[in-house]
Design brief:
The chain is α/β, with parallel strands linked by helices and 355 residues long. Helix content is 37%, strand content 19%. It has one domain: Alkaline Phosphatase, subunit A, CATH 3.40.720.10. It binds zinc ion.
C-alpha cells in the first residue's frame, strides 16, 4: 500500500516550471560585443552568448516608431503593442488594463517578482505590475505594485518600508541583508529591497559602485541570487523579470565605460541565474535574455581585454535596430532566429500553461 501511495504521489506530482526573463535595458548587439571584448578580449564571451538558442527581436511600438522602455516592456509583459510612455494599458484602444504575465502567474498561485537596478517604479518593472497611461505617474505605479502583491521587488527607490509591511513582505536595505537572505535556510515568503544612490533613486552604476567603494550596495547578481532564494519556495514554479536597467542610462549619456561595466554585470547576473538552475538538476527552468531596445546607436570600433572600447554613437536616444535574444533551459528553444517582442509574452504563457 505504501509503495502504491508513493507511486501515486510521484505520478501526480505537480510539475514545476520557472520562467526567468532577463532584460538588458538599451543593450543592443554592439553593446554586447563591446562588453564582451572588454571582459575577455573577444566577442562571444558573455554568459548568455553561449546559450543554445539565439535570435534577433523586433522592438517597434504600436505606432511603428522607435520604442521606449514602457512600450517595449508592455509588449513583452502583455503581448500587446502600445504607444510610448504607456504602462500595460490598451492604448491605442479602449484604455483598458492589460493583464501581465507576472500577474497571471501569481493569480494561478505561482510566484512572481521583479529585480532591477533602477527605481522599482521605473518603466520596465512597472509594465509587469502596474497599469497607467504615463510611465511618469510613479506614485500611482508604487500604489499599484503594493496592490498587485508580488513576492519579490528588489531595486532602487519606489517602495517604502511601510509599503513592504502592507504587502506582508520583509524589507531589506543593506547588502548584508541581501547576502544573508541568499544563504538563508528560512527565507521570508515575500521580500522588498530598496537601494538608492542619488536623487534619481536608482542603484549606482556598477562602475561607480566599484570605484567609490560602495560595498554596502549589492550587485545585480547578488540581488538575483536572493530573489531566487525567495521564489524557489514556490514548488510549482514562478515568473521572475530581472533587468539590467542602467545600460540604457549609460547609452543615453554615450558613456562607454559605464555602459560596458553595466553589461558585464548583467552577464554576471545571467551566469548566477544559470548556476542556480544548473544546481537544481531539473529541466524545469527557462531563461530568456534580451533587450527592450538599443540606446545610443553604438558601433563598436576597437578594444581589448580590460581596455575601454573605442565606439561611435549616433544619438542620445533609442534606435530601432533589432536586439539580440538568447534562450536556455526547458523552453529555451522558444527563441527562434527572428521574432517580435510580443512573442515573449507567448513564451511565458506557454510555460505557465505547462505548469
Ligand atoms: Zn532609455
Amino acid at each position: 500500500m505504501l509503495a502504491l501511495i508513493i507511486l501515486w504521489n510521484v505520478l501526480t506530482r505537480g510539475s514545476c516550471h520557472n520562467f526567468i526573463l532577463m532584460i538588458g535595458d538599451g543593450m543592443g548587439l554592439q553593446e554586447v560585443k563591446a562588453a564582451s571584448v572588454f571582459a575577455s578580449g573577444a566577442d562571444g564571451s558573455l554568459s548568455f552568448q553561449s546559450f543554445p538558442h539565439v535570435g534577433t527581436m523586433t522592438t517597434s511600438n504600436a505606432d511603428g516608431e522607435v520604442t521606449d522602455s514602457a512600450a517595449s516592456a508592455t509588449a513583452m509583459a502583455t503581448g500587446v503593442k502600445v504607444q510610448n510612455h504607456v504602462i500595460s494599458r490598451r492604448l491605442p484602444g479602449d484604455d483598458s488594463p492589460l493583464a501581465t504575465v507576472l500577474e497571471e502567474f501569481c493569480s494561478h498561485g505561482f510566484g512572481g517578482g521583479v529585480v532591477t537596478t533602477t527605481r522599482v517604479t521605473h518603466a520596465t518593472p512597472a509594465a509587469f505590475l502596474a497599469h497607467v497611461n504615463s510611465r511618469d505617474d510613479e506614485q500611482t505605479i508604487s500604489t499599484q505594485i503594493v496592490a498587485a502583491g508580488p513576492d519579490v521587488v528588489f531595486g532602487g527607490s519606489g517602495l517604502s518600508q511601510s509599503q513592504a509591511i502592507a504587502m506582508g513582505a520583509s524589507f531589506l536595505s543593506t547588502r548584508d541583508e541581501i547576502l544573508t537572505l541568499a544563504a538563508s535556510s528560512s527565507p521570508p515568503r515575500r521580500a522588498v529591497a530598496s537601494f538608492t544612490f542619488d536623487q534619481d533613486g536608482h542603484m549606482p552604476y556598477e562602475y561607480d559602485r566599484i570605484s567609490s567603494g560602495r560595498t554596502d550596495v549589492p550587485t545585480l547578481s547578488e540581488l538575483s541570487r536572493a530573489a531566487l532564494r525567495v521564489l524557489e519556495q514556490f514548488s510549482d514554479g514562478f515568473f521572475l523579470m530581472i533587468e539590467g536597467g542602467r545600460i540604457d542610462h549609460a547609452g543615453h549619456a554615450n558613456d562607454v565605460v559605464r555602459n560596458v561595466y553595466e553589461t558585464v554585470e548583467f552577464s554576471n547576473a545571467v551566469a548566477a541565474v544559470k548556476s542556480w538552475a544548473d544546481l537544481r538538476r531539473l529541466n524545469d527552468t527557462t531563461i530568456i535574455v534580451t533587450a527592450d531596445h538599443e540606446t545610443g546607436g553604438m558601433t563598436f570600433l576597437s578594444g581589448g581585454r580590460g581596455v575601454v572600447p573605442s565606439v561611435s554613437w549616433t544619438t542620445g536616444w533609442h534606435t530601432g535596430v533589432d536586439v539580440g535574444a538568447w534562450g536556455w533551459g526547458e523552453h529555451g528553444s522558444f527563441v527562434v532566429p527572428h521574432f517580435d517582442n510580443t512573442a515573449i509574452h507567448s513564451f511565458a504563457k506557454q510555460a505557465l500553461n505547462d505548469s
